[in-house]
Queue: 2 jobs
Job 1
Amino acid sequence: MKKQRKFALVPLGVMFALAGGLVFAQVRSGSYSSTNAASLGQGAAPAFAADANYDAGPYPSFTPELAEGDGRQEVQSFCATCHSTRYITMQPPLPGATWEAEVTKMMKTYGAPIPEAASKKITAYLQAHYVPENRKE
Amino acid sequence: MKRMTHAISRRSALKFLGAAGGGLALASWTRRGRALAGAQDRAKPLETFTGPGANPHWNSVGPYVTEPQKAPLILLTDRPVQLETPRHYFRTVFTPSEAFYVRWHLGEIPNAVDLGEWKLRVEDNVNKPLAFSLSELMQKFKPASVAAVNQCSGNSRSRLQPRVPGGQWGNGAMGNAMWTGVRLRELLDAAGVKSGSAQVQFEGLDTGAGPKGMGSNRFLKSLDLANAVLDETIVAYLMNGEPLPMLNGFPVRLVVPGYFATYWTKSLSWIRVLETADDNFWMKTAYRIPDTPRGTTTPEDMKAGKVKTVPIERMPVRSFLVSPDGSSKIPAGLGVMLRGMTFSGYGKVVKVEISDDGGSSWRAAELGEDHGAYSFRSWQAAWTPKMAGKYVIAVRATDEKGNVQPDEPVWNAGGYLWNKIEKQELVAGKAN
């Protein structure tokens, strides 16, 4: 409030400048984040022949980073036979018993040919990185 | 504390202008500092996974990706492909084909189809096995159309508590399209179903790396020949008046109005009439729900082996608020339109109600154009937040069979049938 008195006698010209300043003070403009946001490149349209073949092209892979640790190699070679490891990172943190049941389901119900030693390592890996107590990414 | 730095630079700017009437100027400036703090919160990226609590977001949290013939959609998995439709696409009653969600089961999904070779076969327990090219399907049969919602059985699976493994869908594993093609009954009649047949089985072009005879090798779904839904079932070669994107089942897919999408076989290529009921994995083990009211049970009862299951079929009634979506603040006193859509697999939705107090009091919304019992139907309701504050908008639909959306969750091991009343927090700010 002190300031108000101090500047009470400024010339008329400055008053006009201030009116402009007031409008300016009510908005925020030109603010951009200093970090790069995620972005998506555009795909080019393919060239088609007028034959009977309808080809959508390959589907892109988006392979996730799996947590580093013992058993990751087994996960990448056995689990990824049928599906991408995004099936793991997509899940919420699941209890250890649920991960064990999932590995059993893949082998017994879906017939995944995983040797017992490897399946134990896979279960241990999932329990070491993807349960509520330790899930990081 | 960061906002102080910004505020200081603005302060020097104002000083330069020489602040007569500075009382006013100072007040507007303080307000600006707060806006800046809000902007910094917004720059925070979405978490990369949710849980063990329920996913609090409308959609799932994956990144946007672009797949062939598709708009950028939310990635669940890349092999096989599972993509979710972002919320804003539900502003229109018909979901654009390029934005329609994608869900395949097996890794080897079709990239290309040669229509010079491809045939749709009708075979097994029939008098005369047949095979049709796409042009024969288009020319030999009168086209039939139906507007119908396709919803994944596991849509909204990420809401369940406790969470269950599987595709962690938000609400976007659904879409509505105008489907055009051949009536399934006409194809069956042309081949002549042998008397005493039990079911009709559907298979598409997708296969998996798993061993023969296992669910990881072939995806097969069947329906009873006596089921009246087959009278409305279409083999569709058009989706919203366009050929189907490869990822949505080119060249033809099955359309089973009112039923969950598990029966809507993509790139359908074999229709087999079966003498006995299908006992393959995808009928006997997967896509089954507890034989209880609303298909709900508990993890304890499941573990105890107390739960009898039946194949999933029709979709329970649901309704959604599409906009406003909570991404913006609404000035108090400003009238806005609440908009959304509704559907039920049991018949026409006859009533949509909205609440702005989280479901304590309700009033009717206005229903949009009727595109048939199996389509999305839009709804809208004018709403004015009278005072600044937080409001919880809730939406509740009732279908013609009298089914009303409940406020209680469901739980089952598959993560199916979620249809709890949807709620959205909206913030009204001061307008002066």
Job 2
Amino acid sequence: MTTVGAEYSMSLDGYIAGPSDDVSRVFAWMFAGDTDLKMSAGDHDFDLKVSQDTVNHFEELMQTTGAIVSGRRVFDVADAWGGKHPIGVHVFVVTHSIPAEWADSPGFTFVTDGVESAIRQALAYANGKNVGVGGADITQQCLRAGLLDEIQINLVPVVLGGGVRLFDAFGPVELEIVGVREGKGVTHLTYRVIK
Amino acid sequence: MSKVIFENSVSLDGFVAGPHDSPDNPLGDGGERLFTWYESGDVALPLPGTDMVFMISQASADLLQHEWNNLGAMVAGRRMFDIANAWGGHPPGGGPCFIVTHHPPDEWLMEGSPFTFVTDGVESAIRQAKQVVGHKNVALSSASILQQALRAGLVDEIYLDLIPVLLGGGVRLFDHLGPIPPEMEITRVVPGMGVTHLIYRVIK
């Protein structure tokens, strides 16, 4: 059974990025653990310090994820991940206009006819593996369209007071708690979306 | 050691009441969903001072029982006092109750009233409550009172009962906290039935 899932680090007041897209505080837990985890995006390496539990989680994510659907804003803010997403899979970018400098990149497919089409294409590409969704706006669109199966929230004990909200003015949506795991400076909460 | 604590159900998107809340609709649209976990388990736990009985998981019951055993007094806002109809004279917890208001209501000023009306603000109400609780805790009762107390640096612990629902609007818990929001650390996580209890210590 393949799932369409989203994973975010989120503040207690619901932000996945602070003012000016600052993610230092919501990602601080990724540098607070005792186990090394090397991730890379393009030519850039990130040396993370996480728990063994998180290492296991990332390894599972990389093995089970077959494609990613991303919003254009995330794609731009992340600078196209230097050409290669950290999870190492093909990314379907939902956009109105195709960026010329990446149009021929083998790592990306630009989808101009909406999020449902992008999910459909990503599921076909993933060929039995799962699809990850990235970006608050895309996640909300997937929730509205009934396309999202799972959400993992890495809840961090900070209040940001402004920034990019993950869930904005959309509900009610019923969820089911699938898993609760404690980390250092973070609580990993996994939910299934009830449709 | 006496602490100032806050405990409430909150949706995953951060609301303690749904949209369009009013005295006639105190929990807002769909807000009653935040409290269905009170009937989600098989362990009976009577709420002191009331005739309410929670039916919850053993893990939730152990946590709440401990919290209630240590409850010395409550500080509530006037809006909640009015919406709850003064809890019929029996505020939850059964201890003394300090109501922050500009205009104390005459009908509750009699001898033996469980309520003390505080007209000079939340800080004063918490100070007065602390004087009567001994080593027990002072509980804050609404988002607005919590926000004022957080801004004043008076809150020690926050108990969130995180509910797996997105309400999409309503009364936000962590709002109006000013330019320097509080720093917190996680002290405990307790999975319940249809609820996840998250306990945070406010770093001062």
